[in-house]
Specification:
single chain; Rossmann fold; Arc Repressor Mutant, subunit A; Trna Endonuclease, Chain: A, domain 1; 3 domains; five-stranded parallel β-sheet
């Protein structure tokens, strides 16, 4: 089933302006489906099969000549040298929308794109569907626990594959294979342990030394492995916010898994009911909210511009969005009710930022309940309406 993706309008607009548009994102996030539905008149070639990959490697000019009227090239990171030939084609005839490139390995792909196609391509990121996109599937999960446990990958919704089974295969066939292509990992079991330890730290300030020690690897190895997972859009390091404040603020990022279903699988949470009483339910929910905000921004073609706030005394706000007019402070609570003290951190950080910048911030609290309200000058937003707020600004 093809669902409407929020990135579509940005993709079509940029294809009318640039000769090349590059769409990156994790495997199975829907990149190919989106591009083929947006540009049905373009040829389509996947460089995943070895024979097509060899064609592009051995005769790149002939390969491109076969598709002179325009082409979608899937998994282009497998033949990075092809980008230099695309550059020559574009410089000779700079018609918009000639090449639509997709790739799952964000690190290798963007390094090649930056080198060969600077100024010639727009770059967009497609993550698994947002909550509002998921509602297009007939059997989309309805409750918060079901949403968190199932995750957002389209194949789970479209093919009715049990989520835990799908994630097991995903980790084995895609995650470990892709990472092995970038890094020389001698022991995949150790890497699997590392993945589970990362899941156990979702929503927490990252301590790479502790993470590496628990996984039995060095600090530098942990840093390298995490970088590859991050550039593959499986994990995200949310940087701390520290603009213009003369305070001792945390300088270490927070770690978030992009997909809550993957986090649940790695933590061996076997059902939504088991998640209900799990000690990391709140952290998983926080990561889910951060992911929804990032998706909302990515799928509008925007930069991240997202941070978190924490000082040395423990004052914290889960998410800070920088905007030109007024920043947005976001607190996340997984409970179905909101107590009055839940607003304290928002107001205290707002006061600090207002004193520093002279402009009050918008304040949002996203929670696990069902009622939307405005309390204590804060927009209280239920989880099911998380996409109703204008995160793109």
């Amino acid at each position: 089933m093809v669902i409407e993706r929020n990135l579509r309008s940005s993709l079509e607009k940029l294809a009318s302006l640039y000769p090349v548009v590059t769409v990156t994102g994790p495997r199975q996030s829907g990149k190919t489906t989106l591009c083929r539905s947006c540009f049905p008149d373009l040829d389509y070639v996947s460089l995943e099969p070895l024979d097509r990959r060899e064609d592009a490697q051995e005769d790149p000019r002939g390969f491109l000549a076969e598709h002179s009227r325009g082409v979608i090239i899937d998994e282009v990171q497998h033949v990075p040298e092809l980008l230099s030939y695309i550059q020559a084609e574009v410089d000779e005839r700079r018609a918009p929308g000639r090449f639509i490139l997709t790739g799952s390995q964000h690190l290798g792909l963007l390094a090649s794109v930056t080198q060969s196609l600077a100024g010639r391509t727009a770059v967009l990121h497609l993550l698994p569907p947002t909550l509002d996109e998921l509602t297009s599937f007939p059997d989309a999960p309805k409750t918060l626990l079901d949403v968190l446990w199932t995750g957002a990958y389209p194949a789970i919704q479209d093919q009715s594959i049990p989520a835990d089974r799908w994630y097991r295969d995903y980790v084995t066939t895609y995650v470990q294979r892709d990472v092995s292509q970038v890094l020389e990992i001698g022991n995949l079991r150790t890497f699997g342990t590392f993945l589970r330890l990362c899941a156990g730290r979702t929503g927490q300030v990252l301590n790479l030394s502790s993470l590496g020690a628990d996984a039995g690897i060095s600090h530098n190895t942990a840093k390298s492995w995490l970088s590859v997972l991050e550039t593959g859009f499986l994990m995200h390091r949310l940087p701390p916010w520290h603009r213009n404040l003369k305070k001792r603020l945390t300088k270490t990022p927070k770690l978030h898994l992009f997909d809550s279903g993957l986090a649940c699988y790695l933590l061996r949470i076997r059902s939504p009911d088991e998640l209900r009483y799990h000690p990391l339910r709140g952290a998983i929910f926080e990561s889910w909210v951060v992911s929804e905000v990032l998706k909302a921004r990515y799928h509008q073609g925007l930069e991240e511009d997202t941070f978190f706030f924490r000082d040395h005394k423990g004052l914290e706000v889960d998410l800070v969005l920088e905007r030109g007019d007024a920043d947005v402070l976001v607190e996340v609570k997984s409970g179905a009710t909101v107590s009055s003290d839940a607003f304290n951190g928002l107001h205290r950080v707002d006061a600090l930022m207002t004193a520093s910048a002279g402009v009050a911030a918008q304040k949002v609290l996203v929670y696990g309940g069902t009622r939307r309200a405005r309390r204590h000058d804060v927009n209280v937003l239920p989880w099911s309406q998380v996409q109703d707020f204008d995160w793109a600004g």
